């Protein structure tokens, strides 16, 4: 993908010289200027550093290899070397890849060793805010679409768990998510799965999940919590459900009253079976490890 400056250069070249100008620009693509060894060195350097413009890489190549490229020529070179222009991915700074791998192995072992009547659920809280969320959509060229916003900051506090085998969601709305509301959620889960054996719940390390009250409740419960490694939201499959929920209910949507917003949110989870086909491809156990490809700023 071309960067913004390159696109502007091509536009100016076309306006000044037409198609002939585009076909006779300064890029010479027949013979690479860098040797194979230098190209490998450049690739390794770009993997470890973040460049937002081709001209910055041109300067690095000039200083390091004493080879001259135009920004346009460098874009072609980067494409040939297997690079593309896209956004970086934000991950928790303290994510531990080894701990994540260890969890995945333990999870696989749990699935193999659990009894047929046991259940595995993924649990987390989500706090959708009553305000419009702008997102990508198809818009006519040269036009823009406006979404009204709300002035309030009211939000819904939801605490839930999903069974990724059946896609059943057990969810509660409370004034706040704390130890007491979590215990109420556990009551609902145990009631829903009255015939199940042990109910394993995968969750993050929120303080209320580790509170004294919750520990006391779990001492005489069929529920056993398996905690995720710290800073590993990528391993909690319910996070994908929250993202799917936002896409369906929040993105580019406007609700003029809080009650309409709240009812729409709760209706989504009440009718979750309408999305079974989509969830079956989304909630797969293809866990991704984060923190292994962190580069320099």
From TrEMBL:
- InterPro entries reported for this sequence: Homeodomain-like_sf, RNaseH-like_sf, RNaseH_sf, Tc1-like_DDE_dom, Transpos_IS630-like, Winged_HTH_dom
Q: Classify the source by domain of life.
A: Bacteria
Naturally occurring in which organism (per UniProt): Kuenenia stuttgartiensis
According to the entry, every stretch annotated as the Winged helix-turn helix domain falls at: 54-107
For this protein, the record's NCBIfam families field holds:
transpos_IS630
Q: Please list the GO terms describing molecular function.
A: nucleic acid binding
- Domain (Tc1-like transposase DDE) spans 120-261
| Pfam families per record | DDE_3 (PF13358), HTH_33 (PF13592)
- Put simply, this protein is called Transposase
């Amino acid at each position: 993908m071309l960067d913004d400056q390159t696109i502007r250069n091509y536009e100016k070249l076309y306006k000044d010289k037409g198609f002939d100008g585009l076909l006779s620009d300064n890029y010479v693509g027949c013979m690479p200027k860098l040797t194979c060894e230098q190209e490998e060195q450049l690739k390794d350097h770009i993997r470890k550093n973040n460049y937002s413009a081709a001209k910055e890489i041109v300067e690095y190549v000039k200083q390091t290899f004493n080879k001259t490229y135009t920004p346009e020529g460098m874009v072609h070179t980067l494409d040939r070397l297997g690079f593309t222009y896209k956004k970086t991915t934000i991950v928790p700074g303290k994510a531990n890849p080894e701990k994540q791998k260890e969890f995945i192995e333990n999870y696989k072992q749990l699935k193999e060793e659990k009894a047929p009547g046991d259940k595995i659920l993924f649990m987390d809280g989500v706090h959708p805010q009553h305000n419009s969320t702008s997102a990508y959509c198809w818009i006519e060229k040269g036009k823009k679409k406006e979404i009204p916003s709300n002035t309030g900051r009211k939000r819904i506090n939801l605490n839930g768990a999903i069974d990724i085998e059946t896609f059943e969601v057990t969810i509660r709305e409370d004034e706040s998510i704390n130890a007491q509301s979590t215990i109420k959620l556990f009551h609902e889960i145990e009631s829903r799965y009255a015939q199940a054996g042990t109910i394993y719940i995968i969750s993050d390390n929120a303080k209320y999940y580790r509170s004294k009250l919750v520990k006391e409740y779990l001492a005489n419960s069929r529920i056993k919590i398996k905690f995720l490694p710290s800073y590993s939201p990528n391993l909690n499959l319910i996070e994908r459900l929250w993202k799917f929920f936002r896409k369906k209910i929040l993105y580019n949507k406007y609700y003029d009253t809080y009650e309409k917003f709240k009812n729409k949110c709760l209706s989504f989870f009440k009718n979750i079976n309408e999305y079974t086909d989509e969830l079956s491809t989304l909630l797969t156990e293809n866990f991704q490890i984060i923190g292994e490809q962190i580069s320099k700023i």
